[in-house]
Design brief:
about 425 residues; alpha/beta; five-stranded mixed beta sheet; four-stranded mixed beta sheet; globular; binds beta-D-galactopyranose
Length: about 425
């Protein structure tokens, strides 16, 4: 064995004796589906802050929400849970709660005053039988249109002020050689588009009656029927590359001015930012056509599976503290395109679209929960399949689709 220089042995021992051994970082493997340019930049804020606070973030990203949630479920059920897993607000993780896989965070929530510093709808969506089971990290909204300034200028038109002007505006974009609507034809993206139409053309009450009250008569009523007709008509306004395209690749069409607008949650805003695009000059944003609609709030939480050993629990506690610290909340959400979940942080620097969201969130009659809050993942799946089949078939029977939708909502949770 090579002889180690005596001075090295001595000095090492001295240093060790002098400086206490740096504690091993608290390792936390975090599963999530934030893989786009804007999303990766945002999650890096969490990772860097956690590492700086004495943790070690082990990133386990899985592209696509559905794939990530399936992977997360099988890790937990398979007995090899990570330290933290991303979900959306609401019922997506209810099964994990009901089967006792998740840490009860009620004590942390009390200690950190979550009920005082977070919106009541958020507290309700993370509480099961009076106990808290998830860490909220942001407030997103699903009903946004991201509008290319160049594309609309090229067509000599502007965002329509009423639904009567909607298709004439899209025809002008088409005539100018621009793809009017940038859509990634995946079921969840088509749902976001359909709910944007239902909310804006049908009005906030129509949306609420369908997704909150599960009112079948409204689904069979004239406003829902009109929204289905509008959705069907839009098939003629997307490009040939639409089928199966990811949401962020679709946002890129608007960023480049090849397409007029995309309807997508405000995580799209993170892509404009990552591309160095400026609100007001390169793009604008609208929550609907006209102002009959509400604000379909959504967003992300992290659940903390029960793990063996105290080390992971310590790492989980440090994660919670890091993700919810005021500075991290402001920095993360600015890059992510969402709004901080804490209402006690400085929102003066939130961008103009975010300011519209903040204002709408102050109007109770405008607050609409995303379907993840109000229907089960099973019902969500049935609606996705029905809408995807409807969208894919230009001869689809609108009445049959409406009946499928009504049956699924009526059967929700049974
Ligand atoms: C949503 C999530 C957002 C966003 C989006 C696209 O479910 O809440 O944070 O990332 O998926 O991946």
């Amino acid at each position: 064995m090579k002889k180690i220089a005596s001075w090295l042995v001595t000095s090492t021992i001295l240093v060790a004796a002098a400086a206490p051994a740096a504690a091993d970082p608290l390792k936390a493997e975090v599963m999530h589906w934030w893989t786009s340019g804007g999303e990766s930049a945002a999650v890096k804020v969490f990772a860097d802050s956690f590492d700086k606070a004495g943790g070690q973030w082990i990133d386990s990203a899985v592209a696509g929400g559905e794939a990530a949630r399936a992977a997360e479920m099988s890790r937990v059920v398979g007995g090899n849970p990570p330290a933290a897993m991303q979900f959306n607000y609401g019922k997506q993780f209810a099964e994990l709660v009901n089967n006792g896989y998740l840490r009860d965070l009620t004590a942390i929530a009390k200690e950190e005053n979550w009920a005082k510093i977070m919106p009541p709808a958020v507290i309700k969506a993370i509480t099961f039988d009076g106990k808290v089971y998830a860490v909220p990290v942001n407030v997103h909204a699903n009903n946004w249109a991201w509008i290319s300034t160049d594309a609309f200028k090229k067509a000599g038109t502007e965002w329509p002020k009423s639904w009567d002007d909607f298709f004439p505006t899209l025809d002008k974009l088409k005539a100018a050689g621009v793809t009017p609507l940038a859509l990634g034809a995946q079921a969840w993206q088509e749902r976001i588009l359909f709910e944007f139409i239902l909310n804006s053309e049908g009005g906030a009450d129509t949306y609420r009656k369908v997704f909150v009250d599960h009112d079948v008569d409204t689904i069979k009523g004239p406003k829902f029927k009109a929204a289905v007709a509008t959705m069907g008509k839009l098939r003629a306004y997307v490009d040939d590359g639409s089928a199966g395209r990811n949401w962020n690749d679709t946002t890129a069409l608007v960023i480049s001015g090849k397409a007029g607008f995309q309807v997508m949650g405000d995580w799209s805003k993170g892509e404009f930012r990552a591309a160095g695009k400026k609100h007001g000059t390169d793009y604008t944003c609208q929550t609907g056509v006209g102002d009959a609609g509400g604000y379909i709030y959504a967003g992300d939480v992290f659940v903390l599976p029960k793990n063996d050993g105290a080390e992971v629990a310590k790492a989980q506690d440090l994660l919670v503290k890091t993700m919810l610290s005021p500075d991290v909340q402001v920095a993360f959400n600015a890059i992510k395109g969402s709004i901080p979940v804490r209402n006690d942080v400085d929102t003066s620097k939130v961008d103009p679209c975010g300011q519209i969201g903040l204002a709408l969130l102050k109007q109770p009659e405008k607050q609409l929960p995303a379907p993840t809050f109000t229907i089960t993942p099973d019902t969500d799946g049935v609606l996705n399949d029905a809408l995807a089949a409807f969208w894919a078939d230009k001869n689809a029977d609108e009445g049959a689709f409406i009946q499928q939708f009504a049956d699924a909502i009526a059967a929700d949770g049974q």
